[in-house]
Design goal:
Number of helices: 15
CATH superfamily of the largest domain: NAD(P)-binding Rossmann-like Domain
CATH class of the largest domain: Alpha Beta
Structural class: alpha/beta
CATH topology of the largest domain: Rossmann fold
CATH architecture of the largest domain: 3-Layer(aba) Sandwich
Number of domains: 2
Number of strands: 8
Shape: globular
Distance between the termini: 45 Å
Mean pLDDT: 95
Largest sheet: 8 strands, mixed
Low-confidence stretches: 1-5
Order of helices and strands: EHEHEHEHEHEHEHEHHHHHHHH
Strand content: 5-15%
Length: 340
């Protein structure tokens, strides 16, 4: 696998902002790219206008990129599949792939979420559906990588995680450019948990913004948020250093501070007084942190890990608790040492 083929074909599943941005990047890297968009109207819009003003305004999709609504046609002859779809749709889509994949196909997950019912990470979902023989072929790409910036070739650095060093280095060479740099990481558990759980803290950061709190609050939230993310990650078998890396601290900072962050936006609207149902109804894109909060709440109880911010976020999103009451309860918890 060390040699990159001249006729390499890559299918990107999902025509949302990240799917478009990643497809354009792969095309710039010189690869033959196809986009599958589930929604027939959106697929026709993308194919006809070569852009999506509602999701990624101003970015033109090169004519070389084929856009289709037929999943089986898009998969014909591909070597790599990049899954840029919401986490709650991954199982259903992967299940429909089973008859079309050979053992050599590599699958790159781009979703940052956990399955609410099973509490599985995305790589676990994919492997369960395709079979253990695909274990070394499944990877996750994560890190601070807003589609709005990647699509404009703003310098971005991410990590790709999986079990096979050979496959990781192969993908690293394929996807790296002068504005998009990849590192490899064999801690798939840590990378996927970090990328998923930081979205909960991003919603909390948005709530702080909506309530009018300042830099002191945000700094404390990110620090203590990272602490509880790391605690759960270690309980589930992750490597500590991962949470100080791109998929952990790097993505946490970006998602909590950025105007591009969907999850921060959800929290901000709640902080301003809207309820969750109203906020989600008004959005055109998915905020993964909402479902992830449900999964993380269950995991914290399952592994008996202290996650006070996550618990308060669960109470706000699904229990009707007021954000100011949740902040008060966090601030008045029993005093304790910071470390240990």
């Amino acid at each position: 696998m060390s040699k990159i083929s001249d006729d390499l074909k890559i299918a990107v599943l999902g025509g949302g902002s990240w799917g478009i941005a990643f497809s354009v990047h792969l095309c710039i890297c010189g690869h033959k790219v196809r986009i599958w968009e589930f929604n027939k109207a959106d697929a026709a819009l993308l194919a006809g206008t070569r852009q999506h003003q509602g999701k990624l305004p101003g970015i033109i999709i090169p004519r070389e990129i084929r856009i289709e609504n037929d999943l089986h046609s898009v998969l014909d002859g591909v070597r790599i599949i990049a899954m840029a779809i919401p986490s709650h749709t991954v199982r259903q889509v992967v299940r429909s792939l089973r008859g079309d994949l050979n053992r050599e196909v590599l699958i790159i997950n781009l979703a940052k979420g956990l399955e609410t019912d099973t509490l599985m990470r995305m790589s676990q979902v994919i492997i369960e559906e395709l079979g253990d023989e695909f274990r070394n072929n499944v990877m996750t790409l994560s890190g601070p990588s807003h589609a709005e910036e990647v699509s404009r070739q703003i310098p971005t650095t991410v990590t790709v995680a999986g079990d096979s060093i050979e496959n990781l280095e192969y993908v690293q060479r394929l996807f790296t450019s002068n504005y998009f740099r990849l590192y490899t990481n064999t801690d798939l558990v840590g990378v996927e948990l970090a990328g998923s759980l930081k979205n909960i803290i991003a919603i909390a950061a948005g709530i702080c913004d909506g309530l009018g709190y300042g830099d002191n609050t945000k700094g404390a939230l990110l620090t203590r948020g990272l602490a509880e993310i790391t605690r759960l990650g270690l309980a589930m078998g992750a490597v500590p250093d991962t949470f100080a890396g791109l998929a952990g601290l790097g993505d946490l900072i970006t998602t909590c501070l950025s105007r591009h962050s969907r999850n921060r936006f959800v929290g901000e609207q709640i902080g301003l007084g809207k309820n969750l149902e109203q906020v989600l109804h008004e959005m055109t894109m998915v905020a993964e942190g909402v479902r992830t909060t449900q999964a993380a709440y269950k995991l914290a109880n399952m592994y008996q890990v202290e996650m006070p911010i996550t618990i308060e976020m669960y109470s706000i999103l699904f229990g009707g608790k007021s954000p100011r009451e949740a902040v008060n309860d966090l601030m008045t918890r029993i005093p304790k040492p910071e470390v240990g």
